[in-house]
């Protein structure tokens, strides 16, 4: 994870590209971007050795706003692309990023299986409880009574609880961050990257355009009152009972990360012996 | 089929079906018979048919042993042996018999069904189960194996070697197996010498391989080191072969949660610079279509092997058809030029897949390989395939390229790809339309420029002679593809013996189409027969859309799973040549 000593340490700005984001003014994702670049600098990484992988949605535009290698794929499949990349190239630091619709709805199956597969990558979800790019439809984390054109009376559906799902599915590191606290978020992301296996950082990132009431989140969030646990049962109890505003590392597991490919022991041509008569 | 009478000369090719309910061991015995034929110097082909049951369903091993190499089934089966007759009639249409054919069955299992005796075949009752019971741990399928080997004249020592090779653990099971085989040999000797093979002629290096193994090996030879896939019949064996093989060559296989994951995983791996492949069948290919388009736009090379089965939807999961041609060619949304390659023999599954990897890598484009259940699950004794090394690696960007543009407009359409880890060339690979730098763009001019660039890669491709197998002369041509090629080739050899010359054009490169090459191959042709295993004639329509076919064109087609047999094509050629 550490850069060679001979290479100068880079600053957060060295991880930022010159692209102007498509995001609305005041969007929480700006500070998540700043937190990511700050974390990468703090980790002493080089931009060419980091890949940021995403799917589709407002927050999924983030790879191009970094100066790392970026992959902006199809909707919902960011974790799959990130998994393939990390298994094929274990030398890279892989961040997968996106929103709640991308990760928990269309990509929900991949989310569960990425948690249980435990490949050594970091998944950052900018959760704003709404589909912003398509202009304001309810997502899996939207409150049941939130009214929209698509669901005028609210969905009436219980919210998806990503942290509990992550824990039950085997994620090795679970944290909640708030975009309004960039240095805290940067520290959580850096810790997630350092932690072996699949690390999951859910960032509360307000949508000021379609969910302006989320501006009040800054009043609601608080540091988690307890230290992180490595006991899934305790973590489950905490996560099932918290109100969604406890910020910090909530679970740190010790499961072994997905195995890397070994060194070759054969030339491909050796394999034809089994067919030869 | 040439059914000999008593005293006739020996056969150049014998076809046998061994049927029974699940657990009867017909596939095990079939594989040993094929191995024995291989040991004795023959060529051969074993295809399989089975019901949908996981265990306990009926199954038949269909084996052709010959003095020449062919991937085609013959017109009729010389022998149908059944361990039992339970539900075997379900395969009746797949096991055509002739008047001179022989039915071997255990009288304790009842009389052979009328469906078979009605074809005029002679019945020889053999108490397989009772014979097996004479041996501790004896099995009826091993008795049947010995019987069939004797019937077609395979040497006992070749059979013994095959049994020993299959039963590596040895011990009592092997002893029982060999004893049962000996009993079978004695029984087979009583059934006359009407189905004896002519002496084996093979003196060159041969392989015993399945189409799925060949495709897997071709992928490795092409440089594939990452595979992600979801299990699906009939592609699973390809993955099961690749899993340990990849470990040996330092690669990795991930079993994905679904096909949406597997296709995106291989795109991620290949974006990272590692040649990557997935294998699936029709339903999986349908799920992958969106992401294959991503591979086209983001210009990430990937290979998707579709081992076709009957569709649409779940179709007949265990049986073959050539009806995924449309989705492979046209299934992507938007204008999405990509490569479609089809092997035209079991052994060509190796070369065609390896070539597909090479095309994908050099053109930075997705390539779909259309194999099918017939090839994939067939085991064939073939000439050792010529394994080539294609020197067509991916064009990579150097370190710190000045003013790097990932999607730079070039004459060839191919632009250097920066692999993560390359300093000073960071870019974002994107499914959004983009400009040369990769910056998302909604401008008409960028869209047009990138569409032209992506198309140009394929238009400018010089595919060489590999685009098709072109054989023979004459003013009748048969244009076909994939697993229909072998029966066509055999039909043409028979027609030639009747003095009718025909040309074979079996297309290997289906996309990008090669109209100039086909025009040249069909120069002077007055009649074109299009042969395919698709109900709606997908291949015929494709040819009509992409090529100018000369003269009179006829379409010969049927859906899966019934294969074309040489005789029907032979008769068609004779009839047409005389009008």
Characterization of the model:
The complex is a heterodimer of chains A (about 280) and B (about 575). Chain A is of the alpha/beta class. Chain A has a single domain, classed as Thiamin diphosphate (ThDP)-binding fold, Pyr/PP domains (Rossmann fold). Chain A contains eight helices and eight strands. Chain A has helices spanning about 30-40, 80-90, 100-105, 110-115, 160-170, 180-195, 215-220, 230-240; strands at about 50-55, 70, 95-100, 120-125, 175-180, 200-205, 220-225, 245-250. In chain A, strand 7 (about 220-225), helix 8 and strand 8 (about 245-250) form a beta-alpha-beta unit. In chain A, about 50% of the residues are buried. Chain B is α/β, with parallel strands linked by helices and about 575 residues long. Chain B has four domains: about 15-190, Pyruvate-ferredoxin Oxidoreductase, domain 3 (3-Layer(aba) Sandwich); about 210-385, 3-Layer(aba) Sandwich (Rossmann fold); about 395-460, no CATH class; about 465-575, 3-Layer(aba) Sandwich (Rossmann fold), CATH 3.40.50.920. Chain B has 18 helices and 21 strands. Chain B has helices at about 25-40, 115, 130-135, 140-150, 155-165, 170-190, 210-220, 235-250, 260-270, 280-300, 325-330, 350-365, 375, 445-460, 485-495, 515-520, 540-545, 565-575, and strands at about 15-20, 45-50, 60-65, 75-80, 95-105, 120-125, 205-210, 225-230, 250-255, 275-280, 300-310, 340, 365-370, 380-385, 430, 470, 475-480, 500-505, 510, 525-530, 550-555. In chain B, the strands form three sheets. An eight-stranded mixed sheet of chain B has the order 6-5-4-1-3-2-14-7. A seven-stranded mixed sheet of chain B has the order 9-8-10-11-13-12-19, sandwiched between helices. In chain B, helix 7 (about 210-220) packs parallel to helix 8 (about 235-250). The radius of gyration of chain B is 26 Å and the shape is globular. The interface between A and B is large, with 53 and 66 residues.
């Amino acid at each position: 994870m550490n850069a060679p000593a001979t290479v100068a340490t880079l600053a957060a700005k060295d991880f930022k590209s010159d692209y102007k984001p498509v995001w609305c003014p005041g969007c929480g994702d700006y500070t998540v971007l700043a937190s990511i670049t700050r974390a990468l600098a703090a980790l002493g990484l080089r931009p060419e050795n980091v890949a940021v992988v995403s799917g589709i949605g407002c927050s999924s535009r983030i790879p191009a706003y970094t100066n790392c290698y970026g992959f902006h794929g199809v909707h919902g499949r960011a974790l799959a692309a990130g998994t393939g990349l990390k298994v094929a190239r274990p030398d890279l630091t892989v961040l997968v990023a996106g929103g709640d619709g991308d990760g928990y709805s269309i990509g929900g199956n991949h989310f569960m299986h990425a948690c249980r597969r435990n490949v050594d990558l970091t998944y950052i979800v900018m959760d704003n409880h709404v589909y912003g790019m398509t202009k304001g439809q309810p997502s899996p984390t939207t409150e049941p009574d939130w009214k929209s054109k698509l669901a005028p009376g609210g969905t009436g559906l219980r919210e998806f609880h990503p942290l509990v799902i992550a824990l039950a599915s085997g994620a090795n590191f679970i944290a909640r961050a708030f975009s309004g606290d960039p240095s805290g978020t940067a520290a959580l992301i850096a810790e997630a990257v350092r932690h072996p296996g699949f690390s999951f950082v859910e960032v509360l990132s307000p949508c000021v355009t379609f969910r302006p009431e989320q501006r009040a989140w800054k009043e609601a969030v608080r540091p988690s009152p307890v230290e992180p646990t490595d006991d899934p049962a305790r973590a489950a109890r905490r996560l099932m009972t918290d109100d969604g505003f406890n910020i910090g590392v909530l679970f740190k597991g010790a499961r072994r990360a997905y195995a890397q490919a070994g060194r070759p022991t054969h030339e491909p041509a050796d394999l034809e012996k089994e067919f030869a008569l | 089929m040439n059914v000999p009478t008593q005293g006739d000369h020996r056969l150049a090719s014998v076809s046998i079906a061994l049927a029974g309910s699940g657990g009867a061991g017909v596939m095990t015995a079939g594989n040993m018979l094929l191995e024995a034929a291989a040991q004795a110097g023959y060529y051969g082909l074993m295809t399989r048919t089975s019901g949908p049951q996981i265990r306990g369903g009926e199954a038949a091993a269909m084996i052709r042993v010959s003095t020449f190499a062919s991937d085609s089934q013959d017109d009729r089966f010389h022998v149908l042996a059944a361990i039992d007759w339970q539900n075997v009639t379900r395969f009746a249409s797949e096991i055509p018999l002739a008047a001179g054919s022989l039915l071997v069955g255990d009288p304790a299992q009842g009389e052979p069904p009328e469906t078979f005796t009605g074809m005029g075949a002679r019945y020889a009752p053999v108490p397989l189960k009772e014979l097996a019971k004479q041996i501790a741990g004896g099995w009826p399928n091993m008795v049947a194996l010995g019987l069939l080997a004797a019937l077609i004249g395979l040497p006992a020592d070749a059979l013994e070697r095959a049994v020993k090779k299959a039963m590596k653990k040895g011990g009592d099971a092997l002893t029982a197996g060999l004893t049962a085989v000996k009993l079978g040999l004695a029984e087979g000797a009583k059934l006359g010498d009407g189905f004896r093979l002519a002496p084996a002629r093979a003196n060159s290096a041969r392989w015993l391989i399945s189409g799925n193994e060949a495709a897997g090996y071709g992928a490795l030879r092409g440089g594939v080191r990452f595979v992600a896939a979801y299990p699906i019949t009939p592609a699973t064996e390809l993955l099961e072969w690749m899993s340990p093989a990849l470990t040996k060559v330092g690669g990795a296989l991930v079993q994905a949660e679904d096909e949406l994951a597997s296709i995106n995983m291989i795109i991620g791996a290949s974006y990272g610079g590692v040649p990557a492949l997935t294998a699936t069948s029709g339903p999986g290919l349908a799920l992958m279509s969106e992401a294959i388009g991503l591979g086209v736009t983001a210009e990430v090379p990937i290979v998707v092997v579709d081992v076709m089965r009957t569709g649409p939807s779940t179709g007949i999961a265990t049986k073959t058809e050539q009806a995924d041609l449309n989705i492979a060619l046209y299934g992507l949304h938007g204008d999405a030029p990509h490569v479609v390659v089809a092997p035209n023999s079991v052994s060509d599954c190796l070369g065609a897949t390896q070539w597909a990897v090479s095309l994908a890598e050099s053109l930075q484009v997705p390539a779909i390989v259309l194999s099918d259940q017939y090839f994939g699950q067939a085991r064939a004794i073939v000439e050792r395939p010529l394994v080539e090394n294609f020197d067509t690696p991916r064009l990579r960007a150097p370190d710190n390229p000045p003013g790097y543009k990932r999607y730079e407009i070039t004459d060839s359409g191919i632009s250097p790809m920066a692999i993560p880890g390359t300093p000073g060339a960071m870019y974002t690979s994107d499914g959004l339309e983009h400009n040369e730098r990769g910056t998302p763009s909604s401008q008409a001019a960028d869209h047009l420029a990138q569409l032209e660039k992506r198309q140009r890669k394929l238009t400018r491709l010089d595919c060489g002679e590999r685009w098709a197998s072109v054989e023979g002369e004459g003013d009748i041509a048969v244009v076909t593809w994939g697993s229909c090629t072998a029966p066509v080739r055999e039909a043409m050899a028979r027609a030639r013996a009747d003095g009718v010359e025909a040309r074979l054009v079996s297309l290997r490169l289906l996309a990008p189409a090669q109209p100039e090459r086909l025009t040249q191959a069909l120069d002077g042709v007055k009649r074109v027969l299009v042969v395919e295993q698709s109900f709606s004639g997908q291949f015929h329509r494709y040819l009509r859309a992409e090529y100018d076919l000369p003269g009179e064109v006829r379409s010969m087609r049927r859906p899966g799973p019934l294969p074309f047999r040489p005789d029907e094509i032979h008769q068609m050629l004779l009839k047409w040549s005389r009008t």
